[in-house]
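Subject: two folds for Thursday's group meeting

Dear M.,

Sorry for the delay on this. The cluster queue was jammed most of the week, so I only got both jobs back this morning. I'm pasting them in the order they finished. Each block is the input sequence followed by the predicted structure tokens. Could you check whether the formatting survives your parser before we put anything on slides? The first protein is the one we discussed after the seminar.
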Amino acid sequence: MKILVVDDSSTMRRIICNTLKTVGQEDVVQAGDGVEALAVLEKNPDVQLILSDWNMPNMNGLDFLKKVRETKSKEELPTVMVTTEAEKTNVVTAIKAGANNYIVKPFTPEILSEKVAPFIK
């Protein structure tokens, strides 16, 4: 299964990718912001799960999520927000915009694994 990890921090992308490897997910593509992520999705139509940060330059994660939802439903392309935005209103905003789940940074590998497990095929 191909997974897209979107975060402006290369360190955070590496942490997420390494955690995904521990649960057997090694087919991962990456992007540094929402604009880049849209281009990666266009080149990789076989992406089956997105893990996206919220706060990024050029296009933030919420706007990226909204763009994805213009063409792909929650069932077609599950998306998990991974962010420092822990306020309940932000969680509700992300879910209303079409996020399937939400992970607050910092997180443990166990939490990441638990949150993505329902979407791994």
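Second protein, same layout:
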Amino acid sequence: MAAPASGLAHAPSFDSLLSGRRIVGLQVFIIVICAIVSMVDGFDTQSIALAAPSIAKDFGVQASSFGPIFGVGLFGGLVGAIVFGMLGDKFGRKPILIASIAIIAIGALITPFTTTATALFLVRFLTGIGLGGALPGVIALTGEYAPLRRRAATVALMFCGFPLGAVVGGLASSVLIPKLGWESVFWVGGIVPVILLPVVTLAVPESVRFLARRSDSSALAKVLDRLNLDPTLAPDIAPTADEARAPLPSLFMRGRAVGTIMLWIILLLSLLMTYFLTNWIPIIATQNGLDTRVAILGAVMLNLGSIIGSLVLGRFVRARPAATIVVGYVVGALAVVAIGQAAHSAPGLLVTCFLAGFFGIGAQLCTVGLCATYYSDALRATGVGSAVGVARLGAILGPVVGGVLIAGGVSTPLIFVIIGAVSFGAAIAMLVMGLAVLRKRGVGSAEITAAQAA
């Protein structure tokens, strides 16, 4: 059995008990389950866009009417993340995660029974609450059970499940929808969380931080025993202090105003672009004469490009953050414009979507990491939280803007010129930040990981 580190005998922290040990089976299990939940999140978030062309045909509605339907799901995600995050602090991460998975399952499984756009609107809001509500739980559990020295990398690895789930969902949808109809995508999206429910309920432990706060020594002892640690240490484990949150006005003091505003603009614009592309590419492709399978594969290539792009650009952004991100957004803007020119060609659509994901969305993921490194420890929670909140507004607006443009009869090439201009606007804001803020502060490196985004 492991003993507490020297000097921590009276009040050992859970991190100190995990320090210097190899990751054991329970830790791997927790990380894998959280990654699968993240994949389900990505799958279900993307599924409505992949099925939208077929749903619109069945419902007898215009495809442009799906803007609010796309947007309300993302708004539900915002509500779920905020409300369920607070409930998790009060009632524990595990029960809230179970409730979120149940909501995802219910939302997905009742979607095939909807017959009107209004019913689908309400169901997507419900599903969005579950999707957003699951994130605080998987972040907390993965972070707490990963060793401190590997925590950032582990959370980053877990978060790869989200875009991977979107890719898997796209590949599955390209086979399922043509053969079994759009309903099949939601059957799959609902059955998987149903299978996850008993696994999470019976095998995933509660947050150690929550148990320590409640002084639940009995439950803590069971967790320690499953981790091959000394269960008699449970009563002495010190609760982890809450991360300090600075007041919002402090983000605009002592020369931080320009950097804060630029980060908000960059993330709002880039998320607007990202969620426009992920939601509308399948519909626009089918409207331009491509079959359903090719339209879905366009979304797959976009997500696949974003995964690879974030990894590749992340290597360059450590040395030259501003320059790398600016180039990413500029090339991404050109690729987005090219989608509009190639929307009638299957090879052209797939190539341009991959490039848009690689550069445009890859740069966006790097920007979130830069946001985490821009603020000091005392300001990081408030700085990142506010920036991600503003970014979510862009995510909600993206699908709605797409619906307005399509309903207004704007041509496909012009639509993508407008969205490309959005990415170019993010590049300009990043250039301003690089010249006016980062250079003066001497910021020359940034450790970009999905963990910082979380």
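Two things I noticed about the second structure. The chain has 17 helices and no strands. The radius of gyration is 22 Å.

Cheers,
T.
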